[in-house]
Amino acid sequence: MKATILQENLSKALSAVGRIVPSRGQLPVLANVLVEAEKEGVILTATNLEMGLRISAGGKVVQTGALTVPARNLAEYMASLPSGNVELSVETDKLEVKAGKAKATFAGIAASEFPVMPKFGERGEKNQLTSIKRKVVSQIAAQVAFAAAGEESRPVLTGIQLVREDKKITVTATDGFRLSRKTIGVEEEKGAERALILPAKTMIELSRMVGEGKKEEVRMEIIGESNQVIFEYDNVQLISRVLEGNFPDVDKIIPTEFTTEVTADREELVRGVKAVSIFARDNSNIIRFRVSEDKLGVEASAAQTGESTDEIEVVKKGEDMVIAFNYRYVLDYLNSEEGERVKIRMNGGLAPAVFVGEEEGKEADRIHLVMPVRI
Q: Domain 128-250: which CATH class?
C-alpha cells in the first residue's frame, strides 16, 4: 500500500471513527482502525461490532492495500503533525507514516482479521433502500433517543422503534419509566415495509454525522440477510445492527382521557424544577407537583438537607391534585422541547402523566410520558 493524503483530512477522519472504537474490545483488532488504500482514495473503518463507521478521506493512491493499526495512537500522532501531505506505506504488518522530516512506524494486525462489514450499494435481494431527512435524524436524536434505556438488561429497550406507514414515521423510545414518541410526516409512501428497532446510540451518532453537512437527504439501506442497516451521507457510511425482540406495546399505557390538565410556560417550569432539584437529589430525585386553582407548586424535601418550594402560574382544567416524579425525567423532556408552552395531562397521582409541547397555540407532533413515583 502506498498513498498520499492531506494531514487535516486524515486527522479529521481518524477523530470521527475514533468515537466508535471500544475502550475494551472483545478482540484486539477492535482497538484498531482499518486503513485501506483503494482507487477512490484512503478509506478508514472502525467498529465495536454493534456499530461501524466507514469514511472516505480522499488522497492519491499509488498502490492499493490494507492494514489495521491502533486507532488511538495513529490519531494522536496525526494530530501532532503540521498541515500538508502525509505519505502512507505498508511493509508486511507495519504502517509507515512520513510527513516532512517526521516519520513513524505502527505495528498492525492483518486486514483479514478485521470484521467484515457490508458496504452501501452492494444490494442483496432482500435489501430495502429508502431515505430520511437530515432534519428528521436530528429531531429523533434530540427529542426521542434520551428516553431509551442505558443498561443492557433488556436490550430491546436500548433501542428506538421506527414504524413507517402511509406518509408518516412513528418513532418511539422507552426505558420503562418514561416514554417519548414523535410522529414525522414523510413525502413518499414508499419505504421500509416493517418496523425497525435501532440502537439509540446509532441515531445519536448519525445525528453527529449529519450535523455539519449540507445535503438534506440521508440514504438508508436495510440489509435483510444480516439484519443490519447502513446510512450513507456525503463520504461517510454508518453501519448498525438492528435489535431483535418485541418492542413493548406502549399504546396500551398511553392514556387518552385526563382528569387534570395544566398549561405552563416551559422556561418557568424548567427554572422551578431546577431550583427544587437541589433538595430532590438527596431524596431519590423525587419532586412533587401540586395543582391548585391556577397554580402549579413544585416541591422537594430531604431530611438531611432541607426543603424547597416554588410556584408557577398555569392555566388549569379539571381537578386539583398532587403527583410526584423523578425530576431528571421531567427535566430531560423540558430541555428537549422546542415549544414555548407545555401541557401536562394527568389522571391522579398514580397514573402516568403525558407532557405535550405547544407553540403558537398548536400542539407539538410528539408526546412524552412519565410514570409517577409513589409517595
A: alpha beta
Helical H segments across 108-223, by residue range: 134-143, 200-210
pTM exceeds cut of 0.85 = yes
CA-to-CA separations, 216 to 133, 143, 226, 365, in angstroms, rounded:
6, 19, 28, 21
Task: Read off the DSSP letter of residue 303.
Answer: T
Contact yes or no for 163/192 (Cβ under 8 A): no
Q: Which residues of the chain register pLDDT less than 70?
A: 123-127, 186-194, 360-361
Q: What is the DSSP letter of 100?
A: T
Rg (CA), the chain: 25
Return the domain boundaries, the chain: 2-113, 128-250, 254-370
What's the pLDDT score for residue 20? 93
Q: Which fold has domain 2-113?
A: DNA Polymerase III; Chain A, domain 2 (3.10.150)
Q: CA 270 → CA 3, 310, 327, 333, 354, distances in Å? A: 53, 11, 10, 10, 16
CATH (one of 3.10.150.10, 3.40.50.150, 3.40.50.920, 3.40.50.1820) for 254-370: 3.10.150.10
Q: What is the pLDDT of residue 122?
A: 72
pLDDT of the residue at 123: 62
Residue 282 corresponds to which cell in the numbers above? Answer: 438527596
